[in-house]
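Q: What would this chain look like folded?
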Amino acid sequence: MPYLYLQPVVSLPQRRVHLYEGFTRLRQKDDRIIMPQHYLPLASEQGLMPAIDNQLLFRCVQVMRRLVKRQRNLGIICNISEHSLLDHDFFPQFIEFMDDNRQLSSSLIFEFSQETIKNCGPIEFENLASLAELGFVFSMDQVSDMDIDLESLGKNNFRYLKVESSIFLNG
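A: My prediction, written as structure tokens:
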């Protein structure tokens, strides 16, 4: 069973928690944590990524509901794998679930890798547009190529980019 781990994202220089990034981790029977690099290849190969993403999404929604009740002005970044975005069975159900939870649109951010967005076709961009119409925004991670059309990303509701510092430092 996947577990949700939250990593704080702080604003500088105040070091105030602004967001949390949600990560999925698996545990063995002896409670040792299995890191993604050890289970993602097998999960991808076996077609389990939509199920893992679904668990992550469900847990992120649960946490956000609790934070909203406490009137905490925080958000959660929830990573969605390429397999889920391209899954024509999973994604319509995902959109329906998010429609039922649209009150969380100001605090739940969906994150996709740069490679995933590059692999999107018209149907996948329509799915993203459906989420954007509900008020959700997106983040792009694993950015390895700075040849990015920022205007197009902005029009598609991408508000965050995660870029390794080495990319900036090395030009």
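The longest strand covers residues 16-27.
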